[in-house]
Amino acid sequence: MALLFVGVFLFALVIAPNIKESLEKSLLGEGYVKFTSDKFIIWYHKETYSAQRIAEIVQSLENFVSDFRLQMRNHGIKIPPLATCTIYLLRSHKHLKKFGMQMEVADMSNNGGYFSPSTYSIALTNDDLHGLYHETTHLLFSTASTAEAHLPPWLNEGFAQHNEPFPEKPVLQPIEYLPSIETIVAFRESEFSMLENPLKYAASLYLLEFLLSREDTRKCVYETLAEALTHPNASILGIFRKHGLDLTRLNRAFTRFYTGK
Ligand SMILES: [Zn+2]
User: Fold this and answer.
1) Is the model's pLDDT at 5 over the cut of 80?
2) Which of 3, 107, 188, 189 has the fewest CB atoms within 10 Å of its CB?
3) What is the pLDDT of residues 36-84, one digit of tens each?
4) What's the CA-to-centroid distance between 150 and ligand 1, angstroms?
5) Neighbour-count burial of 145, counting CB atoms closer than 10 A to its CB (0-12 exposed, 13-18 middle, 19+ buried)
6) Whether the Cβ atoms of residue 100 and residue 106 lie closer than 8 Å to each other
7) How far is 193 from 54, CA to CA, in rounded Å?
8) Which residues are placed with Cβ below 5 angstroms of ligand 1, an ion?
């Protein structure tokens, strides 16, 4: 029994991490090195960044994590501390696609990057630093979710983009057609794809930023989020109704907010 215990202990602590690391090394290829901090392990190519730059990137990401947890806590949403997450910064999108598939992360055909809850890792191309904040938002929400909970995609993707730190968000092209609130909150996860459908991302972000700009609807956003992190099928429309908000009026205000009409 004691021997079995020692065996399991050795496997978990020494052997399993080594297997993981040699798998990572073989999939990453030549020139990739590892930087380890409190909450993150970052694999990057040594020709793309200096260790000092990576340290700065990780520091700002860790600051973002604490700020976001605090912001959520102020709205009554508790995000538990993160386990160490591995981040892979790959040199090309082609490599990212192949890497994602070899790591057995579902369908990589359209993804510009991913957070995978099953491998607790994030993968991106090395020039996609705003994506780090995007995927880390997914990581934080996934840490706060119960197993059966399911965040509405518009809310998950809306917050992920809202947290990207750069003023020029790549998906924020001028939007010619602004869908109704009902249409946006009904988007399905399979309809999102960074490379093929920027409209869904833009519409989700627009809706979130509009709702956060008003006191009455801001409350509804956080209430929906809290509900969605613990229960399946939370819908903001029901929460609007509960607060006596008129959807027709909200839709008009939403259009006016972006078009001035
Ligand atoms: Zn996303």
Assistant:
1) no
2) 3
3) 998 999 999 999 999 999 999 999 999 999 999 999 999 999 999 999 9
4) 14
5) middle
6) no
7) 28
8) 157, 160
Entry pTM = 0.88
In whole angstroms, give the CA distance from residue 51 to residue 218.
Answer: 40
User: What's the 26 CA to ligand 1 centre distance in angstroms?
Assistant: 27
Domains of the chain, residue spans: 18-144, 147-261
Q: Tokens at residue 83, please? A: 């386990």
How far, in Å, from the CA of 241 to the mean position of ligand 1?
28
Could you identify the residue written with the tokens 């003023």?
A: 167
Distance CA 44, CA 133 (A): 17
Pairing of strands 85-90, 121-125: parallel
Q: How far is the CA of 106 from the centre of ligand 1 (A)?
A: 14
Helices 198-212 & 215-230, crossing angle to 10 degrees?
A: 120
Span 18-144: which CATH code? 3.40.30.160
Task: Give the ranges where the chain is alpha helix by DSSP (H).
Answer: 2-10, 16-28, 51-74, 93-102, 129-144, 153-162, 181-185, 198-212, 215-230, 236-242, 247-259
Q: In angstroms, how far is CA 216 from the centroid of its own chain? A: 26
